[in-house]
Amino acid sequence: MTLKEFIENLQKFVEENPKALELEVVTSKDDEGNGYNRVYYEPSMGHYDGDDFTPHSQFEDWNRDDDDLNSVCLN
Q: Are 17 and 23 a contacting pair, CB within 8 Å?
């Protein structure tokens, strides 16, 4: 899912559930819902390779450039 699609889904969700704007945000630990975590951090851009995420702020340390941007980490 792209960030654009995610935002569109959020906008539709909020239109249908305006009270949700005041609720805490959590994420599931896995696709089966075997646990949940609070969201503490703002989103960040970076590179995701299927296992690891390198934030844009660390690209220089890992010899990456802006062409390697491919994802947004939500937490």
A: no
The predicted-structure confidence for 33-64, as pLDDT tens digits, reads as follows 899 999 999 999 999 999 999 999 999 999 99
**Full-model pTM:** 0.81
Q: Name residue 35's amino acid.
A: G
Burial 39-66 (b: 16+ CB within 10 A, else e): eeeeeeebbeeeeeebebeebeeeeeee
Question: Which tokens in the block code for residue 1?
Answer: 């899912």
Residue 54 has phi, psi (to 5 degrees) of -110, 115
